Amino acid sequence: MMMKKTNKSSQGRQKIPIAKIAKRTNLQVTFSKRRSGLFKKASELCTLCGVEVAIVVFSPANKPYSFGHPDVDSLIDRFLARNPNFNISLADSCQQLGEAHKNASANELNMHLTRISNQIETERKRGESLDKLSKTSECWWENPVDELGQDELRILEAAMEELKKNVNEQANRIWMESSNTTSIASSFFMMNNAHHIFENSRSSDQVGSDSINIPRAYDFGFAGNIGLF
Amino acid sequence: MMMKKTNKSSQGRQKIPIAKIAKRTNLQVTFSKRRSGLFKKASELCTLCGVEVAIVVFSPANKPYSFGHPDVDSLIDRFLARNPNFNISLADSCQQLGEAHKNASANELNMHLTRISNQIETERKRGESLDKLSKTSECWWENPVDELGQDELRILEAAMEELKKNVNEQANRIWMESSNTTSIASSFFMMNNAHHIFENSRSSDQVGSDSINIPRAYDFGFAGNIGLF
DNA sequence: GCTGCTATTTTTAGGTC
DNA sequence: AGACCTAAAAATAGCAG
What we know:
2 copies of one chain form a homodimer. Chain A is an alpha+beta fold. Helices cover 44% and strands 8% of the residues of chain A. Among the domains of chain A are: 20-87, Transcription factor, MADS-box (SRF-like); 89-137; 144-186. The first copy, chain A, is built from 6 helices and 4 strands; from the N terminus they run αββαααααββ. In chain A, strands 1-2-3-4 form a 4-stranded antiparallel sheet, sandwiched between helices. The longest helix of chain A is centred in the last third of the chain and has 29 residues, at 152-180. At the A-B interface, α1, β1, α2, α3 and α4 of A face α1, β1, α2, α3 and α4 of B. β1 of chain A pairs antiparallel with β1 (52-58) of chain B, so a sheet runs across the interface.
């Protein structure tokens, strides 16, 4: 109806091929916009369908960004729990650990235990989500484990041996329960501008939880703030 | 130009509020469509900007779906590598393990070692990405570890004690390297219809790698294919 | 569950500030 | 890096099969 404005301020969205963007500045802008779009889509999916979503993005400069509802770490935990060899015993596990270490470099060793201790800590922090399952387990295995310092492994090894017998039945019940319930206890979103920490500082940079957070400076003991988005 | 068809077959896209969808069937369809959309957006972001993205979604029925470029696990590893307590020793780690186990239920115990063995396996499978770092490590720690069966832990414990001294320097170098390179060696996408395995079967259901994969049936020893998306 | 359809909403490329 | 603008491109709600 209206005549087209002569000083057309924009020709609107242009079609671009899905291939690596050449222009650095362009790429940067697109990365920001599409990352936001992706996180928005994710949060909509969470709300609309009552599901849980975690996203991790590493920028071209290797800077991590993340979105998580209810939070990235618990979802990663849960995802990693899809278990290829569920019937492994603690002894086997430790043997594997040893085997792996035999052929590992110093760095690999560190990463091993980095990851393992990380897992353990995360594990310890939750556990409330597993409370409902506690009731179902017999306590026979708790008795022998009492004052285990360095010998805990042996004892647990034996316990595990027994434990294996109950795993499948238990697993069955767990899965049945989880597939019957649609309730995803969820109360907030988190969009994290994630970060690497090699010392012990922990900067948060989380977006979400109703409002946008205030960006914080990174705290690298050795490198300061890594540039480039 | 064309007159509008009287038998309008559709009123097109309807606006819906971003709130939990009430109708189960509707929710299911929306979940599928939007999940696909999300994964597509993610893959476009990867291609356009040369970045790495991992997504994990748990459906209302708790079934995990995932997208990852180049793959979910390595990105999760990398993400988890932002390490709150990098200086922990293997001894500490094992003690923590023991402590945690002391207060854990049978299921929790299994999940502990499930996760740990999982981590170990993942770790063993890669390592090629860390090859460049192998050179930098001294081999002093390899000598004592030779015929370690049940005693591997003690030996490694000692080794770790020494190893701690090199960690920070090593970490520094790793981080420097990774933040200086923009090259994200990437050659394919993976869209995993992930799964829980409580026995030992490993179904892949991976989409991507240039083409769409052929869906496979799940292989649960106890429950067959778990319904609901 | 899926594919296809279509009308509409939503995203976003390329600008400017 | 953001916020805003425009108009074209892309995603998708509701329905059919």
